[in-house]
# Entry
Amino acid sequence: MRVQARRAGALLGGLMLPAVSLADWTLNMSPGVTSSSNEIFSLHMTILWICVAIGVVVFGVMFWSIFAHRKSDDRKPANFHENTLVEILWTVIPLVILVVMAIPATATLVDMYDTSEAEIDIKVTGYQWRWKYDYIDQEFGYFSNISTSDDEIYNRTEKSEHYLLDVDNPMVIPTNTRVRLLLTANDVIHSWWVPEFGVKKDAIPGFINEVWTQVDEPGIYRGQCTELCGVKHGFMPVVVKAVPREEYDAWVNEQTAAAEAERELTQKDWTMAELMERGEKAYATACAACHQPDGTGAPPAFPALKGSQMALEDMEGHIDIVVNGSAGTAMQAFGNQLSEVDLAAVITYERNAWGNNTGEMVTPKQIFDYKNQE
Amino acid sequence: MSAVTDTHAHDDHHHGPAKGITRWLLTTNHKDIGSMYLIFSFTMFLLGGAMAMVIRAELFQPGLQIVEPEFFNQMTTMHGLIMVFGAVMPAFVGLANWMLPLMVGAPDMALPRMNNWSFWLLPCAFLILVSTLFMQGGAPNFGWTFYAPLSTTYGPPSTTFFIFAVHIMGISSIMGAINVIATILNMRAPGMTLMKMPLFVWTWLITAFLLIAVMPVLAGVVTMMLMDINFGTSFFDASGGGDPVLFQHVFWFFGHPEVYIMILPAFGAVSHIIPAFSRKPLFGYASMVYAVGAIALLSFVVWAHHMFTVGIPIAGQLFFMYATMLIAVPTGVKVFNWVATMFRGSLTFEAPMLFAVAFVILFTIGGFSGLMLAIAPADFQYHDTYFVVAHFHYVLVPGAIFGIFASAYFWLPKWTGHMYDETLAKTHFWLSFVGMNLAFFPMHFLGLAGMPRRIPDYALQFADFNMVSSVGAFMFGATQILFLVIVVKCVRGGEKASAKPWDGAEGLEWTVPSPAPYHTFATPPEVK
Amino acid sequence: MAENQTYYVPEQSKWPIVATVGLGVMLFGLSSIMVNGKQGAETTGSWITFWIGSAIMVYMLFGWFGNVIKESRSGLYSAQMDRSFRWGMTWFIFSEVMFFAAFFGALFYARMFAIPWLGGEGDKGSTNMLWEGFQATWPLLNTPDPEAYPAPEGIIGPWGLPLINTILLVTSSFTVTVAHHALKENHRGKVKLWLGTTIALALVFVFVQGYEYAHAYQDLNLTLQSGIYGSTFFMLTGFHGAHVILGTLMLTIMLIRINKGHFTAENHFGFEASAWYWHFVDVVWLGLFVFVYVL
# Structure
């Protein structure tokens, strides 16, 4: 089926533009690397060719009328305006064509909806504006942020090869393994799409959608968020790295160990300078999108932190809003998004950056205690 | 009793339009109101078009150059809202106001004062909507489909103003539609049975029914938003037992019939224009009527095909896929009928015919991509990409908007009493045709290659086609100024138009002089 | 179809533009009240705007309807005009039905899909892992996140006040029909009696509904904010209540007009339109009673 599909794709490309050899003039859908994406591609090509065939016939008759039946050639118009047989035919024939289309479409759909028997479950959570991947069986998870720099976006430097399609931590999956994704979102609706997998599913806050995929070819696959999710909707790419099973297992061990180390860091004694340094980084990834890198925010939706009463005085309130968010506003609860260390660092940073010189320090232990007192 | 009314009818004959601004503010005349709708619609078309130009300018190259993403999102949202509710819908209501009474032989619309209110509510609604651009936090930025919770919990403060603007538009549309239905059902000239009605009248009757059925549902869904935003309800919030997807179900229950509201009147107009310039009666009148009816009914049971990726249970997915595919049948019948009408006719290609033929071809292309989108598994790849953008622009621009242009050129002689400048009009057509295809055809490729919609910046592999698309969009946009020039020229003067300037045209509207007198059919004509 | 020749096309009228300005100012004011109120800003100016708009609307309603009544009474309207009004009112009521349909749809969706999924049943049952401990029940006496939306402690059972209200409204539908028949037979005294009874029943209904709301808010913590049950309950019954009040106003105006000697046995569409509207309100209530209270 895949070879067929490829051949069909090449044929279409060849027909439409000779420039198809240039990578930038991609004309058609990619057949992808999974069985689903291949089935979709062949469905797509089938319907496309049926449409083209119908178009050729209908427009053929039409253009023939346009060229041959002109008043300027002194054509006398005919006067017919009904023909029951013809009308029945052109109602029934399309109906039959539709049934022919519906059969493979139904089969594909049934196959795609079967989410049973996956070996690995990964919970994918959409945040404004990044993805979080939780490997729920292994008890670790991490965020995946865009790694394209602002300089590239604002044309101050050359754009890299994977402009807007690169992340710091891609999702990693083993090849030849059935993987089930549990999609949800933290704030607004996002949509997780990797074209080469033929997987696109909405991540809806408060609900879980299931979808499965199985990738056989190792490689890096790229996609994007496809549901408008706010200002940076165009800047939350999806990157998936498919690796052989052994490599995957090694990676999982590494991640589990790192997660453990992170938990230990909470107990460490931190200095102001260390927290500020870490806080600046955490602020840049988690907070700056709304509250701006210089803390001035974008009122009224995103209040300024610079000089704010909360950041200068109300420490309890400050910890509370960062950990638990603020209901009914765009301020999310970061308690589960950031580690205790990062939460402490961010709060410390916000209370001491941009001229907010409180000199106060919030330690990871404080945050840990705060979270557990509830 | 009869004495009173007779004097009145007598009065009418001598009353021309009032002088000055009060003519427009206080009018009850369907022709005045029709003109106001059309002028309003064109103004909104230019405003929405200007926003599209901002969008295409930003997308001319990868990277952020002209506007910030925040403003870009406001532009995509406002462009959609203004084009749908401000440009396309009012244009068809304007055509209905002008032509329905003339076509059915009525003295005016059934409820003339309410008619004026329907119109004036629109500028009022759009004043509020456009004013949100200048409010704190900016205009709505959540797309014209305003999915919750992006539009509720995460929406800008101006969302509340947007909601009430939608309410006002809804009131306007519902009253307009009630007027249309009452006019068609109650004001037809003696002898004009339902199956003798011109097709434009038929399509508008069905459109009005759709409007009355779904605009209240839109009002309902924005009211739920209003309550979620301001009064703590949880319709679209899972933590209270609601569901963001509920919004989409209710919205698309409105939204899908809405897209037919924007195309059915164009079907009607084209069904007059093609026979007129083929000099041959419309093929399959009855099947045309039944096809429109079938499309309208099916439009109520296909809404979730806009939501194939939200995770609908498979039975629902299959139902909505099959129902959507079925729409291809009546739509196909219409296209075949138009082609059969042209077949063995005696064709000429004045501007209305050019636009009508382009309508049939390009709308059909939009229909093909629609059929592809109906296939649920394939839609997983197309959904929310530029393929969808290409699809709905193909049905709306060369569909609805070319339909409006075709109607405008077709009936301009009747409205103004002058012929428009044919050379300029043909230039308008060809530039629009090339520009539009250049702008929207490459979007199919972009979508298939994987470019999501509603993004202000894109990966490098999409750069070339985006540039082509922007060039086409600028061309299409600039060309529309020409339309303004043509219409102004035609209003001011030009070759005198006879009562029936198109030799193949048929219908009551061609029995009154051009320009149509201020009051027509005070005594209804007899239809055989 | 001789009456076609006398279709009345009114002269210029100021009422549409007055209505536009009134509605626009009123709703702009209302939006500002909500937006400013939510941000904790001053709302006095917004309230003033809102009241100015409302006053213009009231002026318009009296003026416009007064105008129509005057035209009707001076015999300008033909039978064909009457049919236009009838079509107009019919389709207006249909549009109202569709408005309620949206809220009924929300109720059915929440009960049949959203709540079971959140509680771990059905196609999207894995959703429950986000809401540990939440169980799907209807009426919804526990919400997925009780901190954000504290659940009601109880709900209004159908067989108390709601049943009384059902009887009140159904009876009022009968009384208004009796009044209509009396009008057709030109028994004015009888019309006044039965129309008055209808209005009285309507007022008792509104009072009972208000009492029920107070009970829900004060004793049961059943509020707009108590999750989807409260949201759908108050939006459906609330919009219905608003329509009852509007219908009552319409009937009251009809009573005033009857007292002034308006209408004839043959020609009384204003009365009929109000009666139609009243039956519509009644039918919606029956739907509410079944789907909101009983089931």
Observations:
- Chain A has three domains: 2-113, 120-263, 267-373.
